[in-house]
Amino acid sequence: MKENNGRASFSSSFGVLVAMAGSAVGLGNMWRFPYLVGENGGAAFIIIYMIAVAFISLPIFITEFFIGRRAQADIFGAYEKLTGSKKWGTIGLFGLLAVICILSFYSVVGGWSVNYLGRAVAFEFTRADTSELGNIFSNFVSDPWLPLIFHTIFLLMTAVVVILGVEKGIESFAKVMMPVLFVIIILLAIRSMTLEGAGAGISYLFKPDFSKITRGTVIAAIGQAFFSLSVGCGTIITYGSYVSKNESIIKCSAGTAISDTLFAIIAGCAIMPAVFAFGISPSEGPGLVFVTLPYIFAQMPLGGVVAIFFFISLLLAAITSSISLLEVVVAFLSEERKMSRKKAVFCSFGLFWVVGALCSLSQGKLSDWTIFGMNFFDLLDYVSSNILMLIGGLLMMIFAGWKIGKKALKEELTNNGTLKIAPWLVNSIVFLIRYVAPIAIVAILFATYGIFY
Ligand code: PHE
Fold it and tell me: What is the 3-state secondary structure (H, E, C) of 376-422?
């Protein structure tokens, strides 16, 4: 393994890009983005989402990358190493909590994907009575045992890759799977856009209706921009800490943001045209991928095969992201608690299994158990995207932009002046990190919690 001052590291620029893109591209793009677009009126939501990516999420991405690569340490150690004091390490707590929330429900949905891949391989959707497909989903998720078994399988698959390590596990897996994933999603989009009646879905995705925008739309778009780029919780600090000092932070961050956004839009093109071609309402909510799509597969020419490829890609997208979430905790346990990688994976597995099991049960047996009107699953989703990641991102930018400061940021973004990057670009990024993105986050926090009306 290539070592970087005794630390594991990614072996090539391509490896860094696919690992980062692997973290960003996930259920957020294929499961969450399409239903949010559907619930929030299509193209107008996409435009706000892209603005949020460019002006808020991407600056945080660069900030996390900066912190991780400069410190070469985990999400607590990094702050300590850069300041020499334990105090700032508290920021890491927001990240750790966010990661626990996200991976727990993520692994449950990952488990659903494994199960649905199995059903697709058995050609269950094309054989079932279409009116039954909604029941198949609700019976499955509310079953006390079956989803737990698949949650366990999904978490085990994630753990195996993480145990293999940064280069042999995470990087090698992403190098093969990310290209495969992009090819499959493009083929699926072509299939969907060539269906008769697909035009309505395409104009839904690309013709904005600004009258649909409300405060809720904006809040949802910003939450999604955090979630989809994996920012605000320390995944990019952790991955950044495995990146060599020769890579360009700006290039790699922009490359990841562009791949992630492109992927979300291509996934939208794979889903919406088919939804409209079959005359279904796009605002189906979280069931879109698991209820509406199987219904479409059942009726579409070649639907059985398309279903298999769709669920393979959903699963691949999910695993490369869950790996990055697990790695945050594993890096923390091995560096701060001096555990071996195996032991760290084992302990985190236990934690995620238990919290994930509660999420899974909250879809059935524990559905009456609500907190602030949400079941446990929805609560973790909400708290991570709309509170923890926002506050985490805000604190990271205050730390990097104000505590560590402009000079260090510029040094790291240009690799001490050795990269030829236009000064206006570096200055604008620093300005976004110090002013624009933090102010936008404070405004959105106020707007969300009803202080501004
Ligand atoms: N970005 C991933 C997705 O879109 C989810 C994720 C969030 C992964 C936060 C890591 C950290 O599915």
Answer: HHHHHHHHHHHHHHHHHHHHHHHHHHHHHCHHHHHHHHCCCCCCCCC
Distance 28 CA to ligand 1 centre (A): 6
Alpha-carbon distances of 327 from 99, 124, 337, rounded to whole Å: 10, 35, 14
Question: Which pLDDT tens digit goes with each residue over 95-117?
Answer: 999 999 999 999 999 999 999 99
- CB of 95 within 6 A of ligand 1: the answer is no
**Tokens 């609560």 identify what position?**
379
Give the model confidence (pLDDT) of 194-230 as tens digits.
Answer: 999 999 999 999 998 888 888 888 999 999 999 999 9
How far does residue 29's CA lie from ligand 1's centre (Å)?
A: 9
**Paired tokens of 179:** 């290209």
In 164-248, where does DSSP find H-type helix?
172-193, 199-206, 215-228, 235-240
Q: Whose CA is nearest to atom 6 of ligand 1?
A: 230
- Full-model pTM: 0.94
pLDDT of the residue at 337:
95
CA 70/CA 256 separation, integer angstroms: 19
395 Cβ inside 6 Å of ligand 1: no
Q: Which amino acid is at 365?
A: K
CA neighbor of 239 nearest in space, from 367, 99, 357: 99
Q: How far is the CA of 235 from the centre of ligand 1 (A)?
A: 9
